Amino acid sequence: MRAGWLTALSLAVAAAAVAAYALLLRVPAVRNQPEGYVAALAIAATLAGLAVALGRRWYAWTALGLTLALFAGGATFNFVLARIPDTPTALAVGRPAPDFTLPDAGGRPVTLAEYRGKKPVILVFYRGYW
Amino acid sequence: MAELQGLGAALSEAEKAGVEIIAVSPDPNERSQELARGLKLNFRFVADRDLAVTRRYGLIHARGGEHGEDVPRPATIVLDRGGAVRWLSLADNFQVRPDPADVLRAVRSL
């Protein structure tokens, strides 16, 4: 009986972690703490492990396999695949940003130096359509 | 993308402060235009097709793309009126972006 409850709890925690990651990606507080879902999946696997220890039922073993796979996948994604190496940049606080001229969406050239003396600028480098 | 939406939501305030937001990506212009329309943003989207400027800034994530190509390292940089860097956020995990509230705080403190 206890093994059943623990299995259900384990699967609920795992499902909540996956759903939270998928649904709340646009919330900075969630998106910026990706360790959170890895930790939740570790908790889910631990609960499934306890369920197996209490009663060696097929469903407890299944939940353990599933949550361990999710944990391994989530950890690999977050700590290996999603990592960006910290390479040196041309930027330092207090120093000027390198000037550039690039075409805007209408094909008109935009030159960074044109804003000098006029407006502060927020420069956002992003990857594109995602 | 998410960082642009976040900044877009905070934009009215940023606009009042008289800030120019320039979004740099290797995306072709047509796609940036689509994006700008979709998000109703008043950003200047500029296309760095060959990543030359991104490379000059040192913001390349080597072979970080889906097909092993170089892609930009997501970064948000606040420049003061004199063109000097005042605040800087470099991604070390491609899921992570600065909180728009932090960016605006940096702008307000100029």
Secondary structure tally, helices of chain B: 5
Q: Count the strands of chain A?
A: 3
Structure class of chain A: mainly alpha
Mean pLDDT of chain B, to the nearest integer, reads 82
The description of the largest β-sheet of chain B is: 2 strands, parallel
Query: Terminal Cα separation of chain A, in Å?
Result: 45 Å
Q: Quick check: average pLDDT of chain A?
A: 90
What structural category do the secondary elements of chain B indicate?
Answer: alpha+beta
Q: How many β-strand runs of chain B? A: 6
Helicity level of chain B, as a percent range?
A: 25-40%
Q: DSSP strand (E) fraction of chain A?
A: 5-15%
Rg estimate of chain B, integer Å: 14 Å
Tertiary shape of chain A: elongated
Please indicate the percent range of residues of chain B in DSSP E strands (runs of 2 or more).
Answer: 15-25%
- SSE run of chain B: HHEHEHEEEEH
What does this structure look like?
The complex is a heterodimer of chains A (130) and B (110). With 130 residues, chain A is mainly α. Chain A has helices at 2-23, 28-31, 35-54, 58-81, and strands at residues 101-103, 109-111, 121-125. Helix content of chain B is 35%, strand content 23%. In chain B, the strands form three sheets. Chain B has a two-stranded parallel sheet with strand order 1-2. Chain B is globular. The interface between A and B is large, with 52 and 74 residues.
